[in-house]
Batch of 2 targets.
Target 1
Amino acid sequence: VQYRPYLTRLFSIALDVYLQMHLVVNDLVLKVLCRDAPDWRLQNSCPACTYTLKDEPDLKFKLLFAMDGNDSLKRISRAAIGASQKIRAKYPLAVVSKLLDMFGDNLAGGYDIGCKFGATLNRSVVGPRAQALNYTSLVPAFHGYAHRRLCQLRFLARYVTP
């Protein structure tokens, strides 16, 4: 079979048209189902986690979540990581801010370096609101065993009280 470059171009155009049509149809379906609000997925992500019964006793934390520090970036050169360290620090701050907006008080978030992140959060613009809404910074159990004992006692969910 002889290669014909114009067929590659035609296929590329056809694929682009198909994908665009798919996006438009998907947007229309989401709109009809009333699932097109910007925060719809977040608000409806887990009914078991966000639904409360009348007269249900309060849990230790209203919502418990975990974030990944993405340490796989260590494969990149140290210079590249050092240059983007401030940018990487903004991601968990943005996550906590959004979750505080959506779910309110008594949230707890596990983060690889939750012990250090708690201090970073308190010094940030989000800090006063996080403190007012009783946000708790945690270290997930999987990462907790790599931390010192004092850090474990202060930041593992097993030992923390809100």
Note: The longest strand covers residues 63-66.
Target 2
Amino acid sequence: MSAQAFLPAWKAACEVESAVVLVPAGYSFMIQSIQFNGPCNDGMTFQVDGVVLAPDGPECWAKNSTKLQWTIFDRTDGLRVQGNSLIDGRGENWWNLPCKPHRGPNGTTLPGPCESPTAIRFFDSSRVSLRNLRIRNNPQFHVRFDGCELVLVSGSQSVRIVNSLISNGDDCVSIVSGCSDIEIENVTCGPSHGIRQLIRIG
């Protein structure tokens, strides 16, 4: 299934309250780089029950698409992205590029100049929620937030939240149990409760 096949479903769901865009169980979908644009009506859910695969390395990447991100959500306030299946970035062929960071002398790491995509990237969105997602083998970061407000991260690894001004009177970033490798950089919170890790007991 091409990336373009998802766009009509997204556009139709965007116009309805509490709509669900479903990636159905029992199928695998290989999609090229894609951008889902808002604003949408309240209560939108992107439900990933089928397997979503990235192109298998840079040689399979569409020539006219960006190599900085794979799946983009822009101005998608209140969006829930959740599911019970797998998002596979198939990054092995990216990791082995000679331009990628590699081991230098005396245990150092030498930088590499080439681009590689983040799996899921959010721009200018508020009240975004990610739940029960299983993301693996991505060429770069799994998830990245830019210019977003009220971010809830739950059961996630390798998440980057950067360059955001969050002023909502609540938690600007809430990190729930089951998370690791969360990087927060250049985020201004206020007035808000700040960045909070929520630990559930019992």
Note: The first helix runs from residue 6 to 14.
